[in-house]
Amino acid sequence: xxxxxxxxxxxxxxxFYQLSGWKELEGAEPxxxxxxxxxxxxELAKKFKVDHVxxxxxxxxxxxxxxxxxxxxxxDVDTHALFTEKAAARGLDVICQKPMSPSLxxxxxxxxxxxxxxxxxxxxxxxxxxxxxxxxxxxxxxxQIGKPFRARVSFSSAFPVFDxxxxxxxxxxxxxxxxxxxVLDVCRFVFGEAQLLFCRTASVNPKIKGEDVANxxxxxxxxxxxxxxxxYASILEREAFPQTLVTVEGESGSVVLGHDFVLKVTTRxxxxxxxAKPVMYPWVDPxxxxxxxSIVDCNRNLLSDLQGTGKAETTGEDNFKTIQLVYAAYESxxxxxxxxx
Length: 341
Ligand code: 89V
What we know:
Blueprint: E1 4-9, H1 13-23, E2 28-34, H2 38-48, E3 52-54, H3 57-64, E4 70-73, H4 80-89, E5 93-97, H5 104-117, E6 121-124, H6 131-141, E7 148-156, H7 161-164, H8 175-178, H9 180-191, E8 194-202, E9 213-220, E10 225-231, E11 245-250, E12 253-257, E13 262-267, E14 270-275, H10 289-306, H11 316-335, E15 339-340
Parallel strand pairs: 1-2, 1-4, 2-3, 4-5, 5-6, 7-10
Antiparallel strand pairs: 7-11, 8-9, 8-15, 9-10, 11-12, 12-13, 13-14
The structure holds (2S)-2,3-dihydroxy-3-methylbutanoic acid (89V).
(2S)-2,3-dihydroxy-3-methylbutanoic acid is lined by residues 161, 165, 178-179, 182, 242, 291.
């Protein structure tokens, strides 16, 4: 299989983990890095033995577009659209971090731009690739708890996420874009599409611009009611970050994904317990283990699509449906109304 060459746009906090994720796979090789602060790109280039570093994205593309297969955009959300456009104009396939962009309109434009340019476009949506969430889906698909009728998906924490990612404190729309894009995508992955939603938000931490609590109630097309709750203001007995905890009730039982990747399946016959621990690669930051580990499986899935051997789950078109939920939630929070999708 041909090794694909790629350039990275953005060498901040997340890029080290994204590149470490690529290193676990055979099929992709970074050749050039862009960052607006050159010194940070140079630092990362040394670690990953990459020879070409730029602080001008056009210069990188002028020099390397001919040899590149794709670009991996790991910048802050406000420049995702810009770099997607630049790469698509050169005929390069695009992988972009979540959330796709800071608005529904520009997300739609990104999908359209790539479609018109005939390039592949993926969103790097890794939460659905977490080992315990894959296991949860497997259990539900096995039919052990029968037809699910109710679910609660929870990402609630007091983790100081702004220490490593200070730009998150500056976002006017924070938790629904940053974590909602993950959590609502997990809901779609596990339960299918939503028919309608209602959302309430709150701003608890006075030091940040956006909302840090969101509660989204959805009616899914299959009939299940799903409550997705997210918060960075939750001082709880056990800190859960960055775990997504889930309870699903079905006609013949329930499944609970709790702390430490433990899944408990209860039916009238009793309760069985399984563990779905993430692979602890040596580069994983233990504070983010399940999230960092899922980067590898997400990259593997996108790479298989790029190489034509598999099908990507989180294409731009698919992820646009998640982004629609994010902005439907904001609309509901603003208007106090149910939003029909
Ligand atoms: O994956 C992410 O979006 C990260 C974190 C888990 C820290 O929120 O920003």
